[in-house]
Amino acid sequence: MARILSKQLAVGAQWETLIGLQKEPAEIRGLAKSRDASFYAVSDDGVGTRTAGLFSMPAAANVEGVFEPYALAAILGELVDAPNVAFLHPDPEDPEATLFITLRDHRPEADLTVPTSHLRAGLDQWLSEVEGPVKLVGIAPLCCPVVDVTLTLDEIAAHVRKEQPLDARLKVVRKPLPARQMKIAAVSVAAISLLFAAGWWGWSWYDDAQQAKLAAANRVDPVDAYKQALTRAIAAEPFSAGASHARRLQYAIQSLPAMAGGWRPVAIDCDVSRCEIQWRRQEGGTFDLLLSQRPNAQIIDLDHAREIMTPADTTAPAPKRVALTPVANTSDSPESVDDAEEDADDGDARVTPVPRTQFLRSAGARLQSLGDYGMDISLSMPSPLVIAPPGVAARRDVPPPIAKGEWKMAGHLAFMDSVAGLMMRAGNMSLRELKVVIDDNKPVFSAQGTYYVH
Questions:
Q1: Is the sign of the CA dihedral 178, 182, 188, 192 positive or negative?
Q2: Which residue has the higher pLDDT, 61 or 159?
């Protein structure tokens, strides 16, 4: 258990290196809570690494009185100019015990009080674990080697009184808020809540009044309102995610290696803007090998990683097809049934609504053929993007209505390029989602999106 010696020095801490993923006080509070510590001190190795010493002592310990205690291990790091230090000194409160404090790479490690009869075994074991020279300081008992530098507790206490190092001083980890301050805080919170509620009510009343005035001032012709609503609805649709986007996704997926440093892609999930690749470690794979080939990969756990890829910057080669990396195309692929899908991508083609009958006779018939080849297909009936106001459909200035529906495809991964081929043939289909699951038995894909007709 941690304790404070008569020389204003504290021993018996648990020393933990601070990772730095959060603010230092928050990290220390978390460590202290898990180790039931009530006080702490900090040691700095001089190159940016900080180590927290956690002291479990009664709350009544004098750490903020006239004689403020300091962590002995942290003081040794300032007094002794060596990376690896072992401090030995007879316990001033127990003649049968010895203080045994070690520093490795300028960072406190062991902070113990051990029986003198067991000291030599513990010292030898620690010396065998340390790489590099070790400096023995303090006052060694007869059973131990002669120290390199003699250092007494009185000398250390004198240094503390002279320098008063702030980090090495013991501080309270958590201190309960006094009852008076708690009452003041409660009243303050209640007052702030009351002011917030009054402000919210006043703003709501003002906003409702302004909305009513705005509605009265913005009464427009229903046809103009319909045109504006239709323009906004069209602008919100992913018309840029057409056949060119599908080909870019296809090329990006096909360009993935079947194995990267002993890691294998097992799932790919793409939307309109990016793809997420799930990597699974195979035998022999390591983090270093994966990151050397896929530097953007993010480690999830020992066997899984993920990578975010943006296919928008990828341009698929139009003149020829690229064979799928995981599974090669077979002679039963739907592309062999219809050569029209072999047409090259004509640049950055956008989605354009077509007559409904034309769509059903071309793309709809193609979906039926794909279904006959064992693929799962789905096509919902279209619904208007914006419903025209009643009573204005006969007016000549009303734009033709545009409707949209949903389409879905799923099947063996060898048929994935049917998606881009179908979208190129139709010209009115957008791709919203493309998923690939790769395994040794049956790699599959699924795609879904929207089609537009008038």
A1: positive
A2: 159
Q: Among 10, 100, 93, which Cα is nearest to 56's?
A: 10
Q: Are strands 85-90 and 97-104 parallel, antiparallel or unpaired?
A: antiparallel
* CA dihedral over 327, 328, 330, 335, signed as positive or negative: positive
Tokens 């015990």 correspond to what residue? 97
Largest CA distance in the chain: 110
Query: Is 225 buried (19+), middle (13-18) or exposed (0-12) by CB count in 10 A?
Result: middle
At 214, which helix (H) or strand (E)? helix 179-217
Give me 247's structure tokens.
């080909």
Query: What distance in Å separates the CA atoms of residue 419 and residue 446, rounded to the nearest whole number?
Result: 10
Output the six-digit token pair for 417: 């390029």
Comparing C-alpha atoms, which of 381, 132, 115, 419 is closest to residue 253?
419
Could you read off the pLDDT of 369-412 as tens digits, one per residue? 888 888 898 888 888 888 877 767 677 777 788 889 999 999 99
Q: How many CB atoms lie within 10 A of CB 227?
A: 16
Lowest mean pLDDT among 76-85, 167-176, 297-306, 342-351: 342-351
Alpha-carbon distance of 312 to 307, in angstroms, equals 15
Count of H helices and E strands in the chain? 11, 21
- Give dist(CA 255, CA 253) in Å, integer: 5
Cβ–Cβ under 8 Å, residues 113 and 97:
yes
Predicted confidence (pLDDT) at residue 329 exceeds the cutoff of 50: no
Instruction: Check residue 319 and give its pLDDT.
Output: 42
Nearest CA to 12 among 1, 23, 21? Answer: 1
H/E element holding 344?
A: none
Question: What count of other Cβ atoms lies within 10 Å of the Cβ of residue 9?
Answer: 21
**Tokens describing residue 25:** 């006080």
Question: Which pTM does this prediction carry?
Answer: 0.46
The C-alpha atoms of residue 130 and residue 315 are separated, in whole angstroms, by 55
The secondary element (H helix, E strand) that includes residue 59 is none
Percentage of the chain modeled with pLDDT above 70: 86
Element (H, E) at 120: helix 116-129
Alpha helix segments (H runs only) across 311-389: 356-359, 365-372
Taking 50 as the threshold, does the pLDDT of residue 323 lie above it?
no
User: Which whole number is the average pLDDT over 271-293?
Assistant: 91
